[in-house]
Amino acid sequence: MKYLNSIIFLSSLAISAIRGEVKYFSKCVKNGDFAITFDDGPSLDYSNAILDILDEYKVKATFFVNGKNCVDITTNDLAKAILKREYESGHVIGSHTFTHPFGITTLSKDELTYELNALNDALYDIIGVKPAFFRPPLGEYSEENLKVIEQCGIKANILWNLDSEDWDHNYNATQQYIDNLEGKDPYAHSFIALNHDIQKVTAETNLKIVIPYLKKLGYNLVPMDVCIGLPAYQSDYDENSNPKKIPSSNNNNNNNNNNSNGGNNGISKDGSGETVSGDPQNLNNNDNNNSNNNGTNNSNTNNNNNGNGNALPETSDANIVRNSVVLSVTIMLLMSILLL
Ligand SMILES: [Zn+2]
């Protein structure tokens, strides 16, 4: 009998590991993969132009959308049409809250639950699925937020490791890519890049330069489900939050393989202030002249009140969970043998 408690403990450990929690990602799980993401849309002004560019270059991207930011998706037919186009084109739709509050760490449990569920329901009405991926406005969240987010069906919290700063007129969004990618190569690095489909510079200038540039460097441009190896929608998980299917890359976005090498710079800046609507920036249309090489080394410090999210895990959380399950089951089997 003395083993019984151990077995019960180990069983609960295994079950909790299987059940999992909201997983955290700031880069893709496979080197060479590059996920282009857009926050804050849909935008009646710019989202369709961005979709045209993605179609032209045959790139699948990810849109972390709001329900009522630029436009109310529950009432505006043009906004609904954009969301349908994004989904039906094979882009991933993620959650960025319903109203885009200025950070979620100050919201009550009920307020955050509303932010998640109102968007879940609105998207379900429009595209027939609820998002499993979440990006917190401003990149800020707390441990308490994560519990609520999980209860609303979210499986993965997605940050970024490359910030285009396309909302900030003090930055050149294209140059941000060039600077951040200097010294990196697809054999050793992967990226999740933050952009906004409500920004004119992104729709009219930046993407047209950056997408060919990324392909030239040899990166695979992938949607978020491929990037992190998890399904994008809640219906593709079982009751224990285990994925029913694992997305795979078809790698058809890739072109050349001219890789640079060396360098070990840090990657991005923090993501504050991202909801500012903006005007075009003055851009240099040179696609690969690296003008400076002092890569900012701020490892994506997200401003969390409770400290979670400051440190970026460098390994896939999904792998950690999987390994925990295997270890727990193995221990349980050994204990069972001892009992016999
Ligand atoms: Zn945002």
UniProtKB/TrEMBL annotation:
Entry keyword annotation includes Membrane: no
GO biological process, one term: carbohydrate metabolic process
PROSITE patterns for this protein: NODB (PS51677)
Cofactor: Co(2+)
Region (Disordered) residue spans: 239-315
KW Metal-binding (keyword) present: yes
Signal peptide location: 1-20
Ranges of Low complexity composition bias in the record: 243-269, 282-310
Record protein name field: Glycoside hydrolase/deacetylase
